[in-house]
Amino acid sequence: MSDDQGLSCRDVVVAYGQHPALRGVSVQVAPGELVVILGANGAGKSSLLNALAGLVPSQQGEMLLGQQPLTDLPPHRIVEAGLALVPEGRGIFGDLSVEENLRLGAYSERARKQEQQNLALVYSLFPKLVERRRQIARTMSGGEQQMVAIGRAMMSAPAILMLDEPSLGLSPLLTSELFRSLRRVRDTGLGILLVEQNARQSLAIADRGYLLENGEIIGSDQAAALLADPAVQHAYLGGAAAKRAG
Ligand SMILES: Nc1ncnc2c1ncn2[C@@H]1O[C@H](COP(=O)(O)OP(=O)(O)OP(=O)(O)O)[C@@H](O)[C@H]1O
């Protein structure tokens, strides 16, 4: 681990009963870095984020945020330590307003102290949410709800933000708007670990990427190099090209 505030995991193993989902995964994210993990359905992407967030137990391996070990901490302590997850499906409270949802993210003592400041930051990064601050969350579009979910995670004052398939259910246009906002979040100095099936669009905004296959990291490189790699194009970008052609 080279960076004081970064996220690193080494040789993480996760199994559901006899079924191995992660077979020794090592990943690093530095502050101010946007890292994407690409993989097909069932590759283990959600298992990795959930293990880092303390939501599923890991059988082996080490997870650190800066110098702080995360392994075996309960999920709320991991959030307090500075690692926040935006889960697949967003998990926002549909009956609450946008601002109530956002404020719920600031539950730790450290986050409450910075609540106003972080709220202002979230609104500056997602200007669309300002005009909708009193709107009931379930009446918002999928893209807007995703912004609320990201904003709420940012209210916990994380050093590293993890997102599980934020583009799910969004049109390509909304996805690129969302991904542009992720770059703005990164530019504030946060590290981002993004899990995506949408390889082309996520590599276009990422700094680095890892390829996860069958519970193992089979490659990693700068995002631009992965985009230009014929093997990556064939395995991960073919679907998108085929879709465009069709
Ligand atoms: N709670 C569980 N119980 C048993 N097996 C599970 C459980 N959760 C995941 N798995 C299995 O572990 C493997 C990895 O699943 P995971 O959800 O991490 O993959 P993923 O890359 O996120 O896939 P997707 O993109 O479809 O969400 C899969 O084979 C999956 O069937």
Automatic annotation (TrEMBL):
CDD domains, per database record: ABC_TM1139_LivF_branched
Keywords carried by this UniProt record: Amino-acid transport, ATP-binding, Nucleotide-binding, Transport
SMART domains: AAA
InterPro entries per the UniProt record, alphabetical: AAA+_ATPase (IPR003593), ABC_transporter-like_ATP-bd (IPR003439), ABC_transporter-like_CS (IPR017871), BCAA_Transport_ATP-bd_LivF (IPR052156), P-loop_NTPase (IPR027417)
GO biological process entries: L-amino acid transport
GO molecular function: ATP binding; ATP hydrolysis activity; branched-chain amino acid transmembrane transporter activity
One Pfam family cited in the UniProt record for this chain: ABC_tran
Domain ABC transporter intervals: 7-239
UniProt cross-references to PANTHER family, sorted A to Z: HIGH-AFFINITY BRANCHED-CHAIN AMINO ACID TRANSPORT ATP-BINDING PROTEIN LIVF (PTHR43820:SF4)
Family per similarity comment: Belongs to the ABC transporter superfamily.
Name recorded for this polypeptide: Branched-chain amino acid transport system ATP-binding protein
Organism, as annotated: Marinospirillum alkaliphilum DSM 21637
